[in-house]
Design brief:
CATH superfamily: IHF-like DNA-binding proteins
Distance between the termini: 15 Å
Number of strands: 6
Shape: flat
CATH class: Few Secondary Structures
Length: 126
């Protein structure tokens, strides 16, 4: 399995007078929708495309709810989703209040099978 990439020039914002360096950037071939994914799953299972689509739609509705409730979403060998909080540190626990939180990030950690697949990827320059 190979992923295509192209070289993109980027300047260092901390050193604007330095010459740009080139970094790899993936070349994406398509943006897959739930409909396309559900059709592919339906072809690989005994479920209808409509049934698969209903399950995927329900998944997209319940995952944000569970995450905001403070749950970690474990999707087997695919991976784990969780929310992380960002803020500037405070000197004491009492000084830290909810309004100090500056950002919420969605974190994904690939599971064992996906991690193994990532190790098998080759890169091809286009």
């Amino acid at each position: 399995m190979a992923i295509k990439f192209q070289a993109i020039a980027r300047k260092n914002p901390l050193q604007p007078n330095d010459p740009a360096k080139f970094y790899p950037s993936p070349v994406y071939t398509d943006k897959l929708t739930l409909r396309k994914i559900s059709k592919e799953i339906a072809e690989r299972t005994s479920l209808s495309g409509t049934d698969v689509m209903a399950v995927l739609e329900a998944l997209t509705q319940v995952l944000p709810f569970f995450l905001v409730e403070g749950n970690i979403i474990y999707l087997g060998d695919f991976g784990t989703f969780r929310i992380s909080l960002h803020c500037n540190g405070k000197d004491t626990a009492e000084a830290l209040i909810a309004s100090d939180i500056t950002d919420f990030k969605l974190l994904f950690r690939p599971g064992k099978e996906l991690s193994q697949q990532l190790k098998l990827i080759e890169a091809v320059k286009v």
